[in-house]
Amino acid sequence: MSGRPSTGVPILRLGDVLLTGLLNELDDKAALAFTHELTERVSADGARGVLIDISRLEIIDSFVARTLMELTMMARLLGARVIVAGMRPPVAITLVELGIELVGVETALNAEQGMAVLGWHQSPQPPEGAHRDSTR
């Protein structure tokens, strides 16, 4: 067992992209642990992209905003592109009202669009009951 605290935030690997998310329950200590854990994973996994889904985040403060900016800069230094996806309108409004700019942070409307920006595309699914003819 390592000496660093666990955030309890899952970090999934999809090829060379890491997928994770932020929850409202993330306090300052957990946010720092999350940053450390995610940057370690970017390096260890050789990730070229990171998608952070914040669609479950209902509020944001200046500390979390700064954490997102710092995480983006750290990942960029390690060779990965970060997309923050799923920002709710109240979170966007709060950032503007507080005068907080997420400098250097790329955003996407939702996780699917964010993954597309990182080079992932959903393949079309055949209609139910359809099958491919393997003969020529």
TrEMBL record:
It holds the Pfam family STAS. This is Anti-anti-sigma factor. Signal peptide: none annotated. InterPro entries: Bact_StressResp_Reg, STAS_dom, STAS_dom_sf. It comes from the Bacteria. PROSITE patterns: STAS. It comes from Streptomyces agglomeratus. CDD domains: STAS_RsbR_RsbS_like. Residues 7-118 form the STAS domain.
